[in-house]
Design goal:
- The chain is of the alpha/beta class.
- Helices cover 38% and strands 15% of the residues.
- Helix 6 links the parallel strand 5 and strand 6.
- Helix 2 packs across helix 10 and helix 5 packs across helix 6.
- The longest helix has 20 residues.
- The chain is globular.
- It binds phosphoric acid mono(formamide)ester.
- The site of phosphoric acid mono(formamide)ester (CP) has 10 residues, from helix 2.
Length: 311
């Protein structure tokens, strides 16, 4: 594997391999000094054209725990402000000598363009409404960690599916790993066509919740809603929000998940995010180990060191 651009490119064996590597890096992350020399001499750059807390910081943490050097690019303090194109920016960074580029951009497809312009490994850190593969890796890893497997598990993905790259990547990963996925959303927040999506659809969250093993809530992406897709956010919460009353419809062991950042009080009640079966903090924690696994697999150095270190 040279790049990680889409979950669609990953076989079940590759997903399993990444999860096995993640197990090793969870163990590394729990050590008093959570660092291995696996990627010494390698440089990883974060090329983020969109805001991020979790993805950018966890990739940077992952790179540092693998002893790679890191470079961070933020558009606010870069020559993009002077009109520099993505291609010129990539070629400039490339000239400094980088081995991996983690790219997030508001337009779908930009990571594929970066992969054409660069010799480095390219990782999609989220492209427009399209894909967010490492989110799907950490989400599927977190489900496996808590439920043992995704095979046969029933997962509801609730909310703004239309604008969600997380939903697209999660549907691909969850169904490849054998889960049964139901999308729960008002018709206006579903994509215009779901042809080819291996999912069921429901508009009745109260009917779905008692049957699922995982309730995965999506953020209401108000910044991407250029048209009036909902009468009001209050109405959305009344019909689809995971309120305390609705959370009681879930089986006691069913997981509550959210990719973050959360709109507390809209798609998820503040106190529901604190319930014992809400694993949102675990998702973030696992995000570092998953991204260590991705960097390690792509940059391909030192597998013996990790095996030794993790034993
Ligand atoms: N889940 C996620 O991608 O979060 P950030 O936007 O903070 O990276």
């Amino acid at each position: 594997m040279k790049h990680l651009l889409s979950v669609a490119d990953l076989s079940v064996d590759e997903l399993d391999e990444l999860h096995r590597l993640t197990d090793a890096f969870v163990e590394v992350s729990e050590r008093p000094i959570p660092k291995v020399p696996a990627l010494r001499g390698r440089t990883v750059v974060s090329l983020f054209y969109e805001d991020s807390t979790r993805t950018r910081l966890s990739f940077e943490t992952a790179a540092k725990r693998l002893s790679a050097d890191t470079m961070t690019f933020t558009i606010g303090s870069s020559s993009v402000k002077k009109g520099e194109s993505v291609r010129d920016t990539v070629e400039t960074i490339e000239a400094m000598g980088v081995h991996a580029i983690v790219v997030r951009h508001g337009s779908a497809g930009v990571p594929w363009q970066v992969a054409r312009w660069s010799q480095a490994c390219v990782i999609n850190g989220g492209d427009g409404w399209h894909e967010h593969p490492t989110q799907a890796l950490l989400d599927s890893y977190t489900i496996r960690q808590h439920l043992g497997t995704l095979e046969g598990k029933r997962i509801a993905i609730v909310g703004d599916i239309k604008h969600s790259r997380v939903a697209r990547s999660d549907v691909l990963a969850f169904t490849k790993l054998g889960a049964d996925v139901t999308l729960v959303a008002p018709p206006t927040l579903l994509p215009p066509s779901l042809e080819g999506w291996p999912v069921q659809v429901s508009h009745d969250i109260d009917a779905v919740l008692p049957k699922v093993d995982v309730c995965y809530l999506l953020r209401m992406q108000r910044e991407r809603m250029t048209e009036a897709l909902l009468p009001t956010m209050r109405e959305y919460t009344a019909l689809y929000g995971l309120t305390r009353r609705r959370a009681e419809l879930l089986a006691p062991e069913a997981l509550i998940m959210h990719p973050g950042p959360m709109n507390r009080g809209i798609e998820i009640a503040g106190d529901v995010a604190e319930l014992p079966n809400a694993v949102i903090v675990d998702q973030v924690r696992n995000g570092v180990a998953v991204r260590m696994a991705v960097l390690f697999l792509l940059l391909g150095a030192g597998s013996e060191l990790v095996t030794e270190g993790a034993s």
